[in-house]
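Hi again,

Forgot to attach this to my earlier email, sorry! This is the prediction with adenosine-5'-diphosphate bound. I've pasted everything inline since the attachment limit keeps bouncing my files.
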Amino acid sequence: DIAVQAIDLVKDYGEGDNAVHALRHVNVAFERGKFTAIMGPSGSGKSTLMHALSGLDTVTSGHVLFGGQDITQFNDKELTLLRRTNIGFVFQSFNLLPMFTAEQNILMPLTLAGKKPDTQWLQTLTTQLGIADRLQHRPSELSGGQQQRVAIARAFIAHPRVVFADEPTGALDTISSAEVMGMLRRFVKEMGQTVIMVTHDAAAASYADRALVFADGRIVADVANPTEEGMT
Ligand code: ADP
Ligand code: ADP
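Structure tokens for the complex follow:
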């Protein structure tokens, strides 16, 4: 059962001799309920792939099947709807709205979609993440680890088909990173959530079921049950 799939995906920035080949005919399928880490050096194409898979960016050629639909054929309106209803995002810099409480931030995807807050699910998520007693705090009143857990709750609140995480531990210390990754992994296992994470952090990647390694626009390794030692 495939959640999202890249077929012969090519992304060039610029044209002719000056073109940068960010993705060179990438083929990869992401199974439902699996946690995948995407690793590789800076500039190897990780973000470009993530942006293509999540409909944030157009591609030069090839296809992205999201739940079986080819989203490279979608217009802007359809892509916005896809992201709003089917995708959750977690960022390195948390991207919480500073004027809103943790609870308002978590519920934002539902608010934007005009849906009622699911208080039961909010309670479950925030209890599991250990932030249930922080819901009325603003982001500035929370530690980095707590802010990232708020961001994870926000990513999961609307039951998206896929959660994309872009360097989720990049701004966290070692202990907070381990806590956040442990919670993310538990969510994947308990809820069958599909998570695709870009990371430089071998320790973070060791929480995934699978690690893809990029180099120069290509997947050069595809590792099951990666270990920290194996990914360093
Ligand atoms: P990574 O996420 O692995 O660091 P990226 O996907 O960001 O790599 O970048 C892949 C290649 O595409 C790099 O050579 C980068 O410089 C280039 N690139 C990325 N975004 C742009 C852009 N908007 N314009 C031109 N080149 C870009
Ligand atoms: P975590 O393990 O989640 O990173 P910390 O151990 O860093 O949490 O923080 C402990 C407590 O201190 C938290 O409950 C939080 O409310 C508070 N705290 C941490 N950083 C800040 C901050 N920058 N501003 C306000 N309160 C903070």
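The radius of gyration is 17 Å. The mean pLDDT is 95.

That should be everything now.

G.
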